[in-house]
Amino acid sequence: MNKINLAEKFTQFSAHWSPKIIAELNGQHVKLGRIKGEFVWHRHEHEDELFLVVKGSFRMEFRDRHVDLHEGELLVVPRGVEHRPVAENECCIMMFEPASTLNTGNAGGPRTVAKPDWI
Amino acid sequence: MNKINLAEKFTQFSAHWSPKIIAELNGQHVKLGRIKGEFVWHRHEHEDELFLVVKGSFRMEFRDRHVDLHEGELLVVPRGVEHRPVAENECCIMMFEPASTLNTGNAGGPRTVAKPDWI
């Protein structure tokens, strides 16, 4: 039951699109991610996902629209909705989602992180 | 599926110890709170709670220790653990917890907010 300092945790990794787990509660994981560039289009059949921008900004693309997110802004992507995060410049995000959630959802492929590390 | 700006949401209420719901996902609520002074000692039998400091600082007291939390720091309080948040100066926090969670847990009493408002 120790506190977690987000800025300190972000110093512990530098890879993009490689989420790290920092906390678990009620079957949910809190994850940090550094993102840059375009991710893969995907959806999660059974999991809603929350994205909070800790530093920087990124765009969440949907098939019919997009949402630009800046520091201090969050977005919930409901289960079943195809999405693709895109960051022109590196962006630091925090995610809340069920512990079962895979980063690439239904898409799979080489960018899947099957078992994210705890930091 | 609109983005939520935390700073803007905090302008929508001023009462202390009156959590507001800003998002729901996977049976969990994301809540904002303004806290100042001492809350009541309580525990949650079935819910873990996450506290993230958005602005300011506060102290989470436990029966045998305490944790001082500052902006950008978070703490998970596991179910069953008695705790009491105390803020010398006003502090803005974000909470992540099951939708069933009552602010006063097992303690009940006049500071219970049975049905927090959505903002």
How would you explain this protein's 3D organization?
- The structure is a homodimer of 119-residue chains.
- Chain A is mainly β and 119 residues long.
- The first copy, chain A, has a single domain (6-98), classed as Jelly Rolls.
- Helix content of chain A is 4%, strand content 47%.
- Chain A is built from 1 helix and 8 strands; from the N terminus they run βαβββββββ.
- Chain A has one helix at 6-10, and strands at 4-5, 20-25, 28-38, 49-55, 57-61, 66-70, 73-77, 84-98.
- In chain A, strands 2, 3, 4, 5, 6, 7 and 8 form a 7-stranded antiparallel sheet that branches.
- In chain A, a hairpin with a 2-residue loop joins strand 2 and strand 3 (28-38).
- The mean pLDDT of chain A is 97.
- At the A-B interface, strand 1, strand 2, strand 4, strand 6 and strand 7 of A face strand 1, strand 2, strand 4, strand 6 and strand 7 of B.
Secondary-structure topology with pairs:
The structure is a homodimer of 119-residue chains.
Chain A: E1 4-5, H1 6-10, E2 20-25, E3 28-38, E4 49-55, E5 57-61, E6 66-70, E7 73-77, E8 84-98
Antiparallel strand pairs in A: 2-3, 3-8, 4-7, 4-8, 5-6, 5-8
At a glance:
Chain A is 4% helix and 47% strand. Chain A has 119 residues and is mainly β. The longest helix of chain A is centred in the N-terminal third of the chain and has 5 residues.
